[in-house]
């Protein structure tokens, strides 16, 4: 079975992202066709990017980078749970993505966005970033509304129909994640 990380893309105190990510994880683990793990950016306590060399050089000098790299390298696919901040993803998630390079390559990704318009603009920005990192991002995405899926913009109460959207997104992530694992096993990574 492939391993899928569900990455909490907000580090803000009082964040909505944690409840969203736990909901995705709870739906995912019922499937039984992949392994799922919550990955919380807060646990890695990454500063603003402080490696001297760009990640594309493949040398990480700092312990926090090495710990983050080992975690991300251990997965075949990712579900990014992203808030929308000023029509993009969070600075914390972009920073965490920028810390690494080869660990992302030839993997699959799906998105769960939340915000006024389902986090759609945050997800579109992430799709551009995924292209540079050779991550195959699936078409299906989940868009949660601050107005109709949260009470008082802070208590997560998702509409039932989103469960189908999570299922479709995970179907695609697992299919592509498995295909790309085969590719990685057969080929050296494309630089
Ligand atoms: C700095 C900032 C900018 C925001 N900008 C947007 C935005 O452009 N579009 C949107 O839909 N929501 C925006 N929001 C609302 C967030 O989507 C909402 O607060 C969400 O709960 C943030 O995720 P978090 O609670 O997990 O940190 C913004 C919130 C913050 C804190």
From TrEMBL:
Named from the GO MF annotations, one term is: FMN binding
UniProt cross-references to SUPFAM superfamilies, sorted A to Z = Flavoproteins
GO CC aspect terms = cytosol
Question: Domain of life, per the record?
Answer: Bacteria
What Gene3D superfamilies is this protein classified in?
A: 3.40.50.360
Q: Where in this chain does the record put each NADPH-dependent FMN reductase-like domain?
A: 2-145
Q: Where in the cell is it found?
A: Cytoplasm
Q: Mind listing the UniProt keywords for this protein, alphabetically? A: Cytoplasm, Flavoprotein, FMN, NAD, NADP, Oxidoreductase
One Pfam family in the UniProt entry: FMN_red
Q: How does it assemble?
A: Homodimer.
Return the protein name. NADPH-dependent oxidoreductase
Q: Which organism is it from?
A: Nonomuraea deserti
């Amino acid at each position: 079975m492939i391993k899928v990380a569900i990455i909490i893309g907000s580090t803000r105190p009082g964040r909505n992202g944690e409840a969203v990510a736990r909901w995705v994880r709870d739906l995912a683990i019922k499937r039984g066709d992949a392994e799922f793990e919550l990955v919380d950016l807060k646990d890695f306590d990454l500063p603003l990017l402080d490696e001297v060399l760009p990640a594309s050089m493949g040398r990480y000098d700092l312990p926090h980078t090495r710990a983050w790299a080992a975690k991300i390298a251990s997965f075949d696919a990712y579900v990014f749970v992203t808030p929308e901040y000023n029509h993009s993803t969070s600075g914390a998630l972009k920073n965490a993505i920028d810390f690494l390079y080869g660990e992302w390559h030839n993997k699959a990704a799906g998105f769960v966005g939340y915000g006024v318009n389902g986090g759609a603009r945050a997800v579109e920005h992430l799709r551009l970033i995924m292209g540079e990192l050779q991550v195959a991002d699936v078409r299906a995405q989940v868009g949660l509304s601050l107005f109709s899926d949260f009470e008082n913009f802070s208590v997560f109460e998702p509409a039932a129909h989103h469960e189908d959207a999570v299922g479709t997104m995970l179907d695609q992530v697992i299919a592509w994640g498995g295909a790309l694992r085969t590719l990685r096993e057969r080929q050296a990574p494309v630089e």
